[in-house]
Design goal:
about 60% helix; Alpha-Beta Plaits; 6 strands; elongated; two-stranded antiparallel sheet; alpha+beta; four-stranded antiparallel β-sheet
């Protein structure tokens, strides 16, 4: 048990180190040499760096301190400790590394700078750490005032990019917004994964045939709820199963064709799924056809 826990901790810190390296490449090889910004605390540090002759490493640490202190009241101490280590690690790596500028093309700088930075931030967050303190601010204000984290970060960055347009140029602000968008999207991809899941609930009189067809053609497991009294345009229904399953969004049209071929009057509800773990979904994603799967 202790060995597994130690192995897990080592794995987390190794991945955080990879995230730090990727983020530092995005900053040092793309954004810094060309004066482009990102959102959040990193963006503030980059903006101040254009006005004062202070190493970006020191600015990153200085501007992160208030958010780290705020984190003591909003997130666990373990996350705060990891974040301190991560931010210091990123600052040290940027201070000592010496990447040459890879390209002078502004569009490539925005896209690839955001890509590397977003990948680094995403990997760090997946392992319980943050490289940018604005997320901690979002958590704090959400907890105190009920404002969504996404809205808080959006307003934070609107103010930042407005100041950028005033202090620097509108062009730099626009390219920085592009960098931020790429960073945010890549961060989301790393955190949530490339698989886009969707939940499906199916109510049908022909539930047995629907269940068998889904198992045969999609190979995904299902949870069956016992329906007792359903009232619709065909009157009352009794003693039927409600089918609940999770599939990859790419198969949603196929799911509809399967159900429609059996029961065109079936009632189907879709809903987004943020995270999936366990069950028989792994078998489904492995695409092992013709395998008999147990019900979940």
């Amino acid at each position: 048990m202790k060995y597994q826990k130690l192995r897990s901790v080592i794995s987390e810190y190794v991945q955080i180190c990879i995230g730090i390296i990727l983020a530092s490449i995005g900053l040092k090889a793309f954004l810094l040499p060309n004066g482009f910004l990102d959102g959040g605390v990193t963006g503030i540090a980059l903006l101040v760096r254009t006005q004062v002759d202070i190493n970006i490493s020191f600015l990153l640490i200085a501007f992160s301190i208030p958010f780290i202190i705020l984190g003591l009241y909003t997130v666990s101490k373990r996350i705060v400790i990891k974040s301190i280590i991560s931010i210091i690690g990123l600052s040290l790596f940027i201070y000592f590394e010496n990447f040459e500028t890879i390209t002078d093309d502004k569009l490539l700088i925005s896209i690839f700078g955001g890509l590397f930075l977003g990948a680094g931030i995403g990997i760090a967050i997946r392992n319980g750490s943050v490289l940018d303190g604005s997320e901690i601010l979002g958590v704090y204000l959400n907890d105190k005032f009920g404002i969504s984290i996404g809205q808080i970060i959006l307003v934070f960055n609107i103010i930042l990019f407005s100041v950028t347009a005033f202090v620097l140029t509108v062009e730099v602000a626009l390219y920085s917004i592009l960098t931020y968008i790429v960073t945010a999207k890549v961060t989301d991809l790393i955190i949530e994964g490339f698989e886009d899941f969707i939940g499906i609930t199916i109510v049908s009189k022909k539930y047995e045939a629907v269940e068998a067809a889904i198992m045969q053609h999609l190979g995904t497991g299902m949870t069956l709820y016992k329906g007792t009294r359903g009232i619709g345009n065909t009157g009352k229904q009794e003693d039927f199963d409600i089918i609940h399953t999770v599939i990859n969004r790419i198969d949603i049209k196929k799911m509809y064709r399967i159900v429609n071929a059996i029961d065109s009057n079936a009632f189907i509800v879709e809903f987004d799924v943020n995270s999936v773990k366990g069950g028989v979904l792994r078998h489904y994603l492995d695409k092992k056809k013709n395998k008999v799967l147990p019900k979940v």
